[in-house]
């Protein structure tokens, strides 16, 4: 029996009435697809090649090109493929190849091995690109499709936290040049920083005019809340914060009988430029320069005497700061600094 006759009987036995096909006018019809599938087949006896399979395929016209949707059911399961191309002839060849493989993949392999002896074999045109498969139970074949680039979205880095300690010197809250210590916490985002600091200014003496030896020791306990932008410059970080600082100034008189302690409030608007450097992850060191414009300026005087001290309208303070940091900004800022 001739080869094509045997293959035709095998294909009919395998498919029979279970092959459904539709295509627009001008595209490969069912008979042409079956004929192309025979080209892909090999030598076999009909009773050995029949497999219970059901195939349902269709080619539909799109706004640009054509689309093949083919479903193959067999004892081993169901496979569904989708392919697109500008030429529906290509899709007919794809369907024929899939049908031949579904009937018996070994026959297709033998046919390819014997291709030099059997003469030229018409192969489906190779797709120029395979991109952007549609989501199906199985991977889809996409031919002549425009590349689909999924936009990438920058993920927000979230909030980071910090705990800080500082030592400073300044002038303008208590009499004379003073020293202060402070502790605080803060939050960081990619572009914003906020600090809350509690501080203590060591006491300084305000003396009455000579020849009196009387006076008062004035200290300060206070807190400041500041917020503002931050900027990463390689391994360095700059910030410019603004906020409010308030303090209680307790004073204790000396050199007079029966001194009575007193406390006054000091309030100011603050501007704090600063610099940070992170030598290792989770640790940053740097410096701040704080300028305070006083909104409330306390004054201290001894009974029956002139004023000993009144805070000036402007205070300045320089601080050295050490910070422990945590959160997503710790690793990201470190990597930026090392790049």
Tags for this model:
339 residues; alpha+beta; 8-stranded antiparallel beta barrel; 4-stranded mixed β-sheet; rod-shaped; disordered C terminus
Protein model, in words:
This protein has 339 residues and is α+β, with helices and mostly antiparallel strands. 20% of the residues lie in helices and 47% in strands. A hairpin with a 7-residue loop joins strand 9 and strand 10. The two termini are 74 Å apart. The C terminus is likely disordered.
Strand order of the largest sheet: 5-6-7-8-9-10-11-14
Q: pLDDT average, as an integer?
A: 80
Largest sheet at a glance? 8 strands, antiparallel, barrel
- Helix count equals 7
Shape: rod-shaped
State the distance separating the first and last CA atoms.
Answer: 74 Å
Parts with pLDDT < 50 across at least 5 consecutive residues = 42-49, 117-121, 129-133, 332-339
SS elements, strand count = 14
What proportion of the residues is helical, as a percent range?
Answer: 10-25%
Strand content: over 45%
Radius of gyration: 43 Å
Structural class: alpha+beta
SSE run: HEHHEEEHHHEEEEEEEEEEH
In short:
This protein is of the alpha+beta class.
Write the layout of secondary structure elements.
Elements: H1 3-15, E1 19-22, H2 30-40, H3 46-49, E2 54-61, E3 66-74, E4 77-85, H4 88-103, H5 105-113, H6 115-118, E5 160-171, E6 178-188, E7 192-207, E8 215-233, E9 236-254, E10 262-280, E11 283-296, E12 299-301, E13 307-310, E14 314-326, H7 328-338
Parallel strand pairs: 1-2
Antiparallel strand pairs: 2-3, 3-4, 5-6, 5-14, 6-7, 7-8, 8-9, 9-10, 10-11, 11-14, 12-13
Helix pairs in contact: 1-2, 2-4, 4-5
């Amino acid at each position: 029996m001739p080869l094509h006759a045997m293959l035709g009987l095998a294909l009919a036995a395998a498919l029979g009435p279970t092959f459904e096909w539709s295509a627009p006018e001008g595209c490969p019809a069912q008979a042409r697809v079956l004929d192309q599938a025979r080209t892909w087949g090999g030598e076999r006896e009909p009773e050995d090649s029949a497999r219970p399979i059901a195939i349902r395929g269709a080619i539909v016209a799109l706004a640009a090109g054509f689309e093949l949707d083919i479903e193959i059911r067999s004892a081993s399961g169901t496979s569904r493929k989708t392919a697109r191309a500008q030429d529906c002839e290509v899709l007919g060849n794809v369907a024929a190849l899939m049908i031949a493989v579904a009937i018996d993949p070994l026959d297709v392999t033998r046919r390819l091995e014997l291709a030099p002896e059997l003469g030229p074999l018409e192969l489906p045109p190779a797709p120029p690109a395979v991109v952007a498969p549609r989501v199906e139970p199985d991977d889809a074949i996409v031919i002549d499709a425009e590349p689909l680039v999924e936009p990438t979205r920058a993920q927000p880095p979230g909030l980071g936290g910090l705990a800080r300690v500082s030592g400073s010197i300044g002038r303008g809250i208590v009499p004379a040049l003073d020293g202060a210590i402070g502790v605080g916490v803060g939050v960081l985002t990619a572009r914003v920083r906020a600090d809350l600091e509690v501080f203590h200014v060591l006491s300084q003496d305000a003396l009455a005019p000579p020849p009196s030896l009387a006076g008062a020791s004035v200290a300060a306990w206070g807190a400041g809340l500041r917020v503002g932008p931050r900027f990463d410059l390689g391994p360095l970080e700059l910030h410019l914060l603004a906020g409010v600082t308030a303090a209680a100034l307790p004073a204790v008189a000396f050199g007079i009988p029966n001194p009575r302690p007193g406390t006054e409030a000091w309030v100011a608007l603050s501007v704090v430029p600063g610099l940070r450097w992170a030598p290792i992850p989770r640790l940053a060191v740097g410096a701040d320069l704080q300028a305070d414009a006083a909104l409330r300026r306390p004054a201290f005087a001894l009974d029956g005497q002139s004023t000993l001290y009144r805070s000036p309208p402007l205070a300045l303070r320089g601080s050295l700061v050490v910070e422990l940091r945590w959160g997503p900004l710790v690793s990201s800022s470190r990597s930026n600094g090392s790049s």
